[in-house]
Structure formats: structure tokens, C-alpha cells
Design goal:
Number of domains: 3
Strand content: 25-35%
Low-confidence stretches: 79-129
CATH class of the largest domain: Mainly Alpha
Number of strands: 17
Number of helices: 9
Helix content: 10-25%
Length: about 375
């Protein structure tokens, strides 16, 4: 994430949320945009992919309290809608790209950092180019019910920022190197007196970077960063539930100055199955049986999600809705398989033949059962 993005892009407008929106509102807005524009749902659609990348970038900033604070403070200081010299935010001929990444990198990330407005503290800044951890990224994958039950490895396309391949992150045209700013001597700030106070502000000569790029890289415009799309292999554990968020350590954005990479957070969507369901960690299955099987008892066959069907023995007089537990035939979890819960559903025939009707009437007469609703008529 470059400071150019911080200053030029309105992340609130991209997600369609207010500036005082809660983290839950930001997350909800991002997930809706991500679902509607995910590359898996719109293969080859450049506009949907761009919308997905913009929303991911906005969510990365607004969902993190520290990044959101820095973003709000940066836009408040420099003004929302700030543009870079030249058209489209790119540097014009003879100009260098404004890159305040090193400035923002000081605030809240380096040792002793205390927020964006430490810029005006007037104190000396140390370790301004120290290691900075990469941004966390968030993505979504959709798996089948079976894949969720046994685990799967999914390929997730991610758009992130990396060092420009042409200039290797220096921002300078190949064969040249940035020079230390002669005005601020590489600090990126200058100090002036104002009303008896020493006030530090970004160096106007190097625009706060501490370096002068006399010949900007033609591919990144001097920022030293470029957008890249790569596929990350993500292991989905067995037994994952719909909506679960999985952390993949070290698979987020690249760090700066030797800093560690961020993490990747993957939201898993599980497709429903027409036969099986979930009850906690166990699988559920409803099996229809006839009235005769429930009344007389029977041996029935029930499918499993993995492997061959199992046989269940129904005792005579099995009531509708009774559940049987089949151990070890549920999800294939790392700590051992869970159970399959089979519920019996007695099916009533929609019509009877004359012979079947006579037989059933004969059964009613022979059984002479008491009225099952007699208890409902008793007064309390």
C-alpha cells in the first residue's frame, strides 16, 4: 500500500460506508462486494476483478484500527482528494512521484512511534527506515460440502503490492540510484521555528521521502511498488464450517525494509448438500422409512459422506423422528472422525389401493388402539 493510495483513494466511498461506520459495517460491505465481484464468479471480467481488488485494498485499511487511524490522519493533514503532480496521479516530465511511505512507516510501526502527528513533535526521528511488517490480506474461497468434511487444498488468487520488478523497489530507472536529499540530509523532514516552537514538517524538496529520484522508473513512476497477482495454495482443514475465518501465517503483503510479511485471512463458504447436514461437528442425515418398517422393525441402508453405506437395524415400534448414532462415519477431522446422526422419517403413502385400504381397515379393527389425542381434551 503506497501513500499515493492513502491520499488519492477514498476507501469509504469504495466500500459505500460512512466515515464513522463500525468495523462490523465495514466487514459486511466488503463481503458483499467480494461475493458479487469475486474472480471465481466472473472469470475474465476485468471490471469485476478491478472492483474486487479495490474493495480488498479498502478493507485491508479500514478493518485495521491502526491503519484506519493513519489513513484518516493522512487525509486530514494533506486534504482528501490530494492529487500527485501530472495527470492521473502520475509524475509529469521532470518531476518525481510523491511517496510518503517512509513517513507513514515511522508512525506506529517503528520503535517509539506514537502516531501520525508525531511528525510535528519537533523531536529527532530514529530508525525511520527500519523493518516494517507487511499488510494483512483477506480473501474468500468456496468449497463443496465434501471438501469441507475431509479437507482440501485450494488455489486463491491474491492481488497485492510488491517491489517493482524493473527497479527492484528503488523507484529509480535501471542503471541509476536515488540520491540523498541535500535539503533534509535524508531525514525526510525539516524543522522551522514557529512562535517559539520547533515544528517539523515534510521536506518540500524530496516530499518527505528523504531521497531524490532524478530519473524515475518508467514502470512504477518512482514509487518502487507495483501491483502483482499471485496464486496462494491454502489448506482448508477437515471439518471447517460455513463462514469460518482461517489464518494463513506469512502469506499476506510483503514487508518493507526486511520486515516480516503479513498474514492472509481466508473466509470459507461451504456449499450445502442435498442429503447431509451439520450438527456441531457431526453429520446429520434423514432417512425415510415405511409405516410397516417402523412398526414391524427392519434393517435399512443409509449412505455415508465417505465410503460405503452402513446398515441400521430398526427395532419394532420405531417412532417417527427417532435418531440413531453411527460412530466414526461423520467428518474426517485431524483429531479423529466424528459421528453420523441418522433420523428416521416415517412416510405416509399419498394413496392406497382397494386391497391395501381393506387390509389397513382390518388392522385398525384388530389393533383396537386407544385414542392418541385423548390427553389433549382433558382440562387442566
Amino acid at each position: 500500500m503506497t501513500t499515493k493510495d492513502y491520499l488519492e483513494k477514498d476507501y469509504y466511498a469504495i466500500l459505500g460506508v460512512k466515515k464513522d461506520s463500525s468495523p462490523a459495517e465495514v466487514k459486511k460491505a466488503f463481503r458483499k462486494i467480494a461475493r458479487d465481484n469475486h474472480p471465481d464468479r466472473h472469470p475474465g471480467d476485468a471490471q469485476a476483478e478491478r472492483r474486487f481488488k479495490e474493495a480488498s485494498e479498502a478493507n485491508d485499511v479500514l478493518s485495521d484500527p491502526d491503519k484506519r487511524k493513519e489513513y484518516d490522519e493522512a487525509r486530514s493533514l494533506f486534504g482528501a482528494g490530494f492529487r500527485f503532480p501530472g495527470t492521473g496521479g502520475r509524475p509529469a516530465a521532470g518531476q518525481t512521484s510523491l511517496n510518503l511511505d517512509d513517513i507513514l512507516g515511522q508512525f506506529g510501526q517503528s520503535a517509539g512511534g506514537g502516531g501520525f502527528f508525531d511528525l510535528f513533535s519537533g523531536g529527532e526521528r530514529s530508525n525511520r527506515r527500519g523493518p516494517r511488517r507487511g499488510h494483512d490480506l483477506e480473501g474468500e474461497v468456496t468449497v463443496s460440502f465434501r471438501q469441507a468434511g475431509e479437507g482440501a487444498t485450494m488455489s486463491l488468487p491474491l492481488a497485492s503490492e510488491a517491489a517493482c520488478a524493473t527497479c527492484h523497489g528503488t523507484g529509480a530507472r535501471p542503471g541509476t540510484q536515488p540520491k540523498i536529499c541535500p535539503q533534509c540530509q535524508g531525514s525526510g523532514t525539516v524543522t522551522r521555528s514557529s512562535g517559539g516552537f520547533a515544528v517539523s514538517e515534510p521536506c518540500a524538496n524530496c516530499r518527505g521521502r528523504g531521497l531524490i529520484v532524478e530519473q524515475p522508473c518508467p514502470d512504477c513512476g518512482g514509487s518502487g511498488r507495483s501491483r502483482s497477482t499471485q496464486s496462494v495454495q491454502v489448506r482448508i482443514p477437515a471439518g471447517v464450517s460455513d463462514g469460518q475465518r482461517i489464518r494463513v501465517k506469512g502469506k499476506g503483503g510483503a514487508g518493507a525494509g526486511g520486515g516480516a510479511p503479513g498474514d492472509l485471512y481466508v473466509v470459507v463458504h461451504v456449499q450445502p448438500d442435498r442429503r447431509f447436514g451439520r450438527q456441531g461437528d457431526n453429520l446429520t442425515l434423514t432417512v425415510p422409512v415405511t409405516f410397516a418398517e417402523a412398526a414391524l422393525g427392519a434393517e435399512i441402508e443409509a449412505p455415508t459422506l465417505f465410503g460405503d453405506p452402513v446398515r441400521l437395524r430398526l427395532p419394532a415400534g420405531t417412532p417417527n423422528g427417532r435418531t440413531f448414532r453411527v460412530r466414526g462415519k461423520g467428518l474426517r477431522r485431524k483429531d479423529g472422525p466424528t459421528d453420523l446422526l441418522v433420523t428416521v422419517e416415517v412416510k405416509v403413502p399419498p394413496s392406497l389401493s382397494p386391497q391395501a385400504r381393506q387390509a389397513l381397515e382390518a388392522y385398525v379393527a384388530a389393533a383396537d388402539e386407544p385414542d392418541p389425542r385423548a390427553g389433549l381434551r382433558r382440562s387442566s
